[in-house]
Amino acid sequence: MGKWLGQPQTLIFEVRDKVAYITFNRPEKRNAQHIKALQELQAAVLEADDLRSVHCIVIQGAGKDFCAGADLESGLDTKGPDNQPFDPADYRARNSFDDDAWATERSSEMRLIIPRVHKPVIAKVHGNCLAVGTDIALHCDMIIAADDARIGFPATRALGSPANHMWLYHVGPQWAKRMLMTGDLLLGKDAERIGLVLKSVPADRLDAEVAELARRIALIEPELQAAHKRIVNLGLELMGAATVQRLAAENDARAHLSQAFKTFYIDMKEHGLKEALRRRDEPFGDSVVRFGDRS
What DSSP element (H or E) covers 61? Predict the structure, then answer.
């Protein structure tokens, strides 16, 4: 297909009016991510950044969701088809803390391509944006969400901590802790209130809102946009954001040592994924944060 991407299997890549649209295309899996999907996301972002015809990038999801998290049945450490010309036993598994940290860092780096490329990236969030979905969205330069989008990291209840951590930089320490220590969810309209997303709009206006923002951004030459993006991101680095990403991946591996992590995978093996998720999440009710507006 192009210099970086080849023929993608998990996403759709299109360029229209100077905007590259990268669409997760596993709606039957609610666009859950595994290693192949992350590899293709990384390649698609590089393709868009390298193309002279592209001034802006939009990441979105097909079907009902932006991304409902990791594909737990396949796993983020899946090495690929069974016919790969190597023996998996010759390579790291996740059987030790260091091996787990190493694998987590590798998958984390695939998402870190988003802030590192020179061109602006918009996340268009609808439906569920959960767990690794937030790892992707929160690294974009701007997030536009549907009012009824559900954004959060329920996996923190049993499966670890975000391997890409931008919560602190978007919402500050109290809200970051509030969300990660409960695994609760924010609706898009409330995510706008605390700065987690740039703007929230009714679901039927989301396409038009993102298209107009992308159009306005694409009016400006990429060389100028690169200067704007990179100085802001350098400021984030001076605030420790780059170091936090490395520590976040390592601490995700540390969180995998918890009994809750082991219990979840035992439940999944014995009872299936849906039942394991039910047991994890049922005590939290619908999980949606409610603000209780006062007159």
Answer: strand 56-61
Return the SS3 of 154. helix
pLDDT tens-digit profile of 59-117?
A: 999 999 999 999 998 754 444 445 567 788 889 988 899 999 999 999 999 999 999 99
Residues 6+ apart with CB under 8 A from 165: 244, 245, 247, 248
Query: In this structure, how many other beta carbons lie within 10 angstroms of the beta carbon of residue 243?
Result: 10
Instruction: Collect all residues with Cβ–Cβ distance below 8 Å to 93 and sequence separation of at least 6.
Output: 77, 99
Q: What is the DSSP letter of 70?
A: B
Phi, psi at 235, each rounded to 5°: -60, -40
CATH of the domain at 246: 3.90.226.10
In a domain, 3, yes or no: no
Report yes or no on 181 lying in a domain.
yes
CA-based nearest residue to 268, from 51, 73, 137: 73
Q: pTM of this prediction? A: 0.94
Query: Can you give the residue range of the structural domain that contains 279?
Result: 11-284
Look-up of token digits 């944006």: 129
Which residues, 6+ apart, have CB-to-CB distance to 94 below 8 Å?
Answer: 77, 100, 103, 256
Q: Which residues, in sequence order, are bridge partners of residue 215?
A: none
pLDDT tens-digit map of 232-284: 999 999 999 999 999 999 999 999 999 999 999 999 999 999 999 999 999 99
C-alpha span between 280 and 154 (Å, rounded): 9
Query: Does residue 2 fall inside a structural domain?
Result: no
